[in-house]
C-alpha cells in the first residue's frame, strides 16, 4: 500500500494507523498547495479532489476520505483492535466519534488555516472550537482513550486534529483531560515513529 500524505495533516492519522496495525506501506509526500508529488507528478491524477490522505491499495485502486481509509487499514488487522468488528455497537461508537471529529473538529479548524479568512471569522471559529473542546474534555475525564482503555482509529484522528491547536494559538492547557490525552497518544511508540517519519519531532539541542 502507498499512503499519500502531507506532514502533520489529517493524513497523519492514517499513517499512525498503518504503523499501529503493523502493515507494510510506502509514504508518498504530497504538496497540498501545488498538488505536486515529490517526483513532480500530478497529485490530481491520484485523487481528483486534491486532498490528502489517499491510500493506493495493492491492486492499484485508490481509496480516499480519512474515516474510510482508517477503517480499511484497521480492518486489515482485526487482532490489532484498532476498530471493533463491523456490526457491533462498539463499531458504531467508533463511527460516532469519527463523524464528530471529521465534521466538528477537523473542518472546524479550516478557517484558521485560511489566510483569506476575515479576523471576525477566525474569532468565531476559535470560540466554536473552544466550546467543542469544553465538551471533549468532559468526555475524556477519567478515560485513557475515547472509547475506554483501548486505542482506536478515533483516537489517532482526534490526536492529529487537536494537535493543530499548537499552530493556531489555542492553548490546550485549558482542557487538562484533552491535554493528557494528547500526551498519552504522543507517547505511543508507533505515534513517535510516525511523527519522526514526517519530520515532526523536535531535534534535541
Ligand atoms: N474529506 C477529506 C478532507 C481531507 C482534508 O481536508 N485534507 C486536507 C489536509 S488535512 C487537504 O489535503 N487540504 C488541501 C486541499 O483540500 O486542497 C477527508 O476526510 O479525507
Using the alpha-carbon principal axes, give the shape. globular
Strand order of the largest sheet: 3-2-1-4-5
Ligand catalogue: glutathione
Taking all residues together, what is the mean pLDDT? 97
How helical, in percent, are the residues?
40-55%
Beta-strand content: 5-15%
SSE series: EHEEEEHHHHHH
Radius of gyration: 17 Å
Count of DSSP H/I helices: 7
- Low-pLDDT segments: none
Gap between N and C termini, in Å?
Answer: 36 Å
Number of strands: 5
| Structural category | alpha+beta
Seen as an oligomer or otherwise, the chain set is: single chain
Main sheet makeup: 5 strands, mixed
Keyword list:
single chain; 205 residues; binds glutathione; alpha+beta; five-stranded mixed beta sheet
What does it look like?
- 47% of the residues lie in helices and 9% in strands.
- It is built from 7 helices and 5 strands, in the order βαββββαααααα.
- It has a 5-stranded mixed beta sheet with strand order 3-2-1-4-5, covered by helices on one side.
- Helix 5 packs across helix 6.
- The longest helix has 22 residues.
- It is globular and about 45 Å long.
- The termini are far apart.
- The model has no long low-confidence stretch (mean pLDDT 97).
- The site of glutathione has 10 residues, from loops.
List strands and helices in order, with pairings.
Layout (H helix, E strand, L loop, with lengths): L1 E4 L5 H11 L4 E6 L4 E2 L16 E3 L5 E3 L1 H11 L12 H21 L9 H22 L12 H11 L12 H11 L2 H9 L8
Bound molecules: glutathione.
The site of glutathione (GSH) has 10 residues, from loops.
Q: Brief description of this entry?
A:
This protein is α+β, with helices and mostly antiparallel strands and 205 residues long. It is built from seven helices and five strands, in the order βαββββαααααα.
Amino acid at each position: 500500500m502507498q499512503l499519500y500524505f502531507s506532514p502533520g495533516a489529517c493524513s497523519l492519522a492514517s499513517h499512525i494507523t498503518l504503523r499501529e496495525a503493523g502493515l507494510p506501506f510506502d509514504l508518498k509526500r504530497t504538496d497540498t498547495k501545488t498538488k505536486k508529488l515529490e517526483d513532480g507528478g500530478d497529485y490530481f491524477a491520484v485523487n481528483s479532489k486534491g486532498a490528502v490522505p489517499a491510500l493506493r491499495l495493492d491492486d492499484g485502486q485508490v481509496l480516499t476520505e480519512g474515516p474510510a481509509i482508517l477503517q480499511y487499514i484497521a480492518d486489515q488487522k482485526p487482532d490489532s483492535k484498532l476498530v471493533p468488528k463491523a456490526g457491533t455497537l462498539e463499531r458504531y461508537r467508533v463511527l460516532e466519534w469519527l463523524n464528530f471529529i471529521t465534521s466538528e473538529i477537523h473542518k472546524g479548524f479550516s478557517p484558521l488555516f485560511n489566510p483569506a479568512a476575515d479576523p471576525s471569522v477566525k474569532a468565531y471559529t476559535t470560540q466554536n472550537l473552544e466550546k467543542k473542546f469544553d465538551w471533549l474534555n468532559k468526555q475524556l475525564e477519567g478515560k485513557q482513550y475515547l472509547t475506554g482503555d483501548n486505542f482506536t482509529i478515533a483516537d489517532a484522528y482526534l490526536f492529529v486534529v487537536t494537535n493543530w491547536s499548537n499552530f493556531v494559538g489555542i492553548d490546550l492547557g485549558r482542557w487538562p483531560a484533552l491535554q493528557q490525552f494528547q500526551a498519552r497518544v504522543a507517547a505511543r511508540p508507533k505515534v513517535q515513529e510516525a511523527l519522526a517519519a514526517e519530520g515532526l519531532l523536535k531535534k534535541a539541542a
